[in-house]
Every structure is written in C-alpha cells, then in structure tokens.
Amino acid sequence: MTPPICHFYLRHVVALLVATVAAFSLGCLFTTKYHAKTPASENKNVYRRTGEADVDESAASDNPYSPSSPMRREYDEFRKWVWENKKIVALSPSGNPQDLLDLSGTLEAKGVSKISTELLEQRLSSVNKIIASLDAHTCSTLIRGGFNLSEFTIQAFPVMNSFDEGEAKAWIQVNKAAIEAQLAGSPNIVLSTEDATLAIIKIARLSNASQSKIYFSGLASLKTASDEDACATARTLYSKGNALPEPYRGHIARLLLTGRNGNEKIYHSE
Fold it and tell me: Could you tell me if 10 and 200 are in contact, meaning their C-beta atoms sit under 8 angstroms apart?
C-alpha cells in the first residue's frame, strides 16, 4: 500500500525543483558556454554581417560537437537562428555574437514555463539521460545546492554529443520554443498543487512497497542524505517520472523543469 503523502514531503520536492531548474531550464547554456568572446577591438577582421548582427567568424567556427554528432548540425543552425533573429538582436545592447547567445539562454530560462507540455516531455527524456550519467556528488548538488555549472557541463556533454537525430532536434526545438514564448510575452502555464501531488504519488504506486518507502523517505531527507542517496532520489523522480502514463508524465515534466514560474501554487501552499 502506498504511504500517504503530505505537505511535508511536497516541500522537499519543491526544494529539489529550485535547484534542478537552475540547471535544466537554462538549456541554452549547454550549447552557448563553449564560445569564447572575441572583442572587435582585439580582432577587427573576424566579423561578418548576418542580418542585423555582426557575427564573429571565430565564434561561428567554434562547434564543440563531433562531426558525426547530430547535435553539431543542430547547434550550427541554432546559432545562426539566434544571430539572425531581429527580436533577439534588438534586445542586445552590443549585438556581439556571444552576448546574443548568452541572451538567448536567459530568454529560454524565462520562457520554459510557457511552452507546451509535449515539448517539456521531450526535454524530460533528454534530462533523464543526462542525470543517469552524472556522478553521485554532481547529481546531489543539483538538488541540495552548491551546483557547479562547469563540472556539470563536463559530465553532461558526452551524453548530448551522443544524442541521435531525433533527440538533437528535440533539444533545440525546446530551446527555440521557450525563447519565442518569452519574446511573445506568453503567459506562464502553472501546475496546480493537486496535479503535482498526484504525479508524485503515481510514481510510488507504480513501485513495490519497499521501493515506495525508500522513495518517500528520500524526498523527506534530501538535505541530510548522503550524495548517493540524494542522487538516487533525483534519478527516481526523473526516470520513473519519464515512464509515467499521461497525464502524470506531463505533470512531472512541468513540476521538474519549470521552477517557480511553472509551480507557483506549490510555493504558495507552503
């Protein structure tokens, strides 16, 4: 029998979200952090005009993904889309290509709570693969603080580099959709406390009694648990959440990936 859930457990899940969304809502950071800024004053001959933006030729050739990776082509197309997007260019004081990419990451982070559940579910599948590849310490910092983006990206990059064509397209599609939603001023789509709770309970109900007990205990003790135990709880939420039937899978995706803007009622219920 599934143990009853209460707000005590739910508050710990919310604490988990605060940290995880810092990593995963900033999806563009996974693809923009590799660019080195090249100020025009240092190299005046490396810029070419593309649409409304001056594109740094050295940045344009800087693609960290391997030639055989589908992410390489998707990343190139994404950067070009950012550099030629007049709305993004208009918001950038400098128009510098790296600044435009950084700005796209900020827009994506703010817009992820405004995109469709279907797109969030695509991102959930990719994030689930990334979490499974992290070491216990890095994984635990995602849910308990002390998160190091550089270390996280080093561990996440091989997984992204191995994305198949569908996964690569889906990753960039989510980034673009979130950016466009933010630029358009679309409203946040907020997950209700009731739906979030039902999704959390559904994970337990699809587990045996022993697993369910460990799951709820892990949610309640995230702050004091070992790195291994905290990471195990995070992996349970993502892996089993990704395998839930609808509409619970969509609820978990919005719960885990959209932070405060997508879960306002949860925060207000504390």
Answer: yes
The DSSP secondary-structure symbol of 179 reads H
- Give residue limits of the domains in the chain: 7-268
Amino acid at 37: K
Strand partners of residue 50: 53
Kindly report the length of the chain. 270
What gap in Å lies between CA 156 and CA 52, rounded to an integer? 33
Question: Encoding tokens for residue 17?
Answer: 């979200």
Taking only the tens place, the pLDDT of each residue in 93-132 is 999 999 999 999 999 989 999 999 999 999 999 999 999 9
Q: What element of type H or E holds 54? A: strand 53-56
Report which secondary-structure segment, H or E, holds 193. Answer: helix 193-205
Full DSSP string of 97-157: HHHHHHHHHHHHHHHGGGS-HHHHHHHHHHHHHHHHHS-HHHHHHHHHS---HHHHHHHHH
DSSP labels, 22-34: HHHS-TTHHHHTT
Query: What is the model's pTM?
Result: 0.81
- pLDDT tens per residue across span 39-57: 333 333 333 444 444 444 4
- List Cβ neighbours of 112 (8 Å cut-off, separation of 6 or more): 25, 27, 120, 174, 178, 257, 258, 262
- The DSSP code for 250 is H
- What is the Cα–Cα distance from 131 to 133, expressed in whole angstroms? 5
CA atoms within 13 A on the CB side of 75: 27
The H or E element that residue 238 is part of is helix 227-242
Cα 106 off chain centre by: 12
